Amino acid sequence: MGDPAGIGPEVIMKSVASPDIRRLAIFTIVGDAGVIENASKECFKEKLSVHQWADKDIKLDETSVNVIDPGSALKNTSPGNPTLEGAKKTLECIRVAAEIMQTSSKDSARAMVTAPVSKELIARVHEGFIGHTEYLQEASLAKLVTMVLVGDNLCVIPVTRHIPIKEVPAKLTGELIVETLKQVVDNRELISGENSARIAVTALNPHCGEKGRIGTEEIDIIAPAVEKAKKFYEYIEGPISADTVFYGALKKKVDIVVAMYHDQCLAPFKMVDFDSGVNVTLGLGWVRTSPDHGTAFDISGKGLANAGSMKHAIKLAFRAIS
Amino acid sequence: MGDPAGIGPEVIMKSVASPDIRRLAIFTIVGDAGVIENASKECFKEKLSVHQWADKDIKLDETSVNVIDPGSALKNTSPGNPTLEGAKKTLECIRVAAEIMQTSSKDSARAMVTAPVSKELIARVHEGFIGHTEYLQEASLAKLVTMVLVGDNLCVIPVTRHIPIKEVPAKLTGELIVETLKQVVDNRELISGENSARIAVTALNPHCGEKGRIGTEEIDIIAPAVEKAKKFYEYIEGPISADTVFYGALKKKVDIVVAMYHDQCLAPFKMVDFDSGVNVTLGLGWVRTSPDHGTAFDISGKGLANAGSMKHAIKLAFRAIS
Predict the structure, then answer these.
(1) pTM score
(2) Which residues from chain A sit within 8 angstroms of residue B116, using beta carbons?
(3) Cβ neighbours of A123 in B, within 8 Å
(4) Which of A94, A109, B48, B143 has minimal Cβ neighbours within 10 Å of its Cβ?
């Protein structure tokens, strides 16, 4: 459900109320039943099928939208008024959703769509919480997960994510780049829609290091990693200077850009896909997507939230499992 | 003239041949006379007034476009065929142009527009050459110079420039940020066209460091520098996460973005101003502008080069001195 005080519940219910989404799957929302029911009032006319996670034998209602409530009802949290109580339940929902994914049969279609949370609030009730991606990596025992941003114009992947810039050069190993490229190649059709997607890899330093004059990581680490990756997938090129490669992607010269760090790809991505971005996590063993916007506490509960990005996220999750 | 084998000579002559540029000033091109004359053939119908730099007493012809040739004529360089001979003369032209700026009266209107060079080739004849900005800083004995990219949509400034990412965090001091902001504030009208331009300062780390959880430079260095800068200019805010601030600038919430490093601002800048960018150097004691494209050796000599960015650069230089 995301943070119960944010626009998460609203965009979830607006999405499942939409016929083109509703027909895709049997939906189960892991969230506070009261919050979800409240968010349904204005937009969702059917009756929800509510279950308690504590109940041993949950039977999903295939004709309805299901809610699984992982714990006691929220008392002091309302739209626009975030609380630690709400943050705690948000995290509990993510934990339960991950457990459902982990314990479902590997043959079943497993996809999880998350709604926006306040990382700051969750970090206050769960020390060290950085974000969904890292939390789910731990919950799924995945060795490596990859964060992908899919927009209408660009598809970008940062090899390193939520770490200080200072730590980026040491974290960038050839192995990490190659393993990330493997996950991207394995999921290229899901994320770009193209089976022969052209993948570009950025440089770390300005002007691609200018042959070693502005840094040596291009020569020592990135170029050899790209060469290795070419052995399992031919349409990979790089390293390419970050100030030209994203523009090239915008002009459709490449389909996917794998970047070395967070801002290097997020800043150009948001210039052209601010409203359309979907976040996809690869490597969990199941699919996780998410709209790329925040909790928007300021407009929560007013019926103003745009469900476009959530709908994109649901459609992408559906594409992955169908 | 820029690299004689590149499109520099062509875009210079196309620009001065254009009536809206021609009427702005008395132009002097520092370059190889043969190369400039060759580039004039197709587009410039007047007779050039050619001078040798070695001549003691050069008298510019105010009715014509002047060429000052700093040395012996190029023999083996032609459009599309870059040589070390050409790189050497390119650098000599920059040196002479800088000398003209430095030795002209401080009361005279001093502006220099540079054309694209091959940094790689110049570095082979002049060890350690990184780019115009750094070379001119040395030539002008400037303590601090600032590189500004001015486009149709964005106006961005990297506090650090052509250095490896690894060196960025250590290079970023409060003093450097404050002094850069001073130069930006002093030149805000030139670069943004606004006397009360709103200036945003980026964070260094992802998500603005998330209150210290992803790096501490925001708290320790950038926020205090912004506070100091606010004492001499009120419309400064920051640090702001790089993945939202450029989009905000595109939506006109701010006029100028001061970023912490090269790719952080160049990647989003080129997404929306790939063709319109002008490079401006602040702090030299005189004005220097430049189109933000490269030598384009592949299309040189074919009459195909677009002079739009060079014209922008000339107009901006003129705005600075008028």
Answers:
(1) 0.90
(2) none
(3) 213
(4) B143
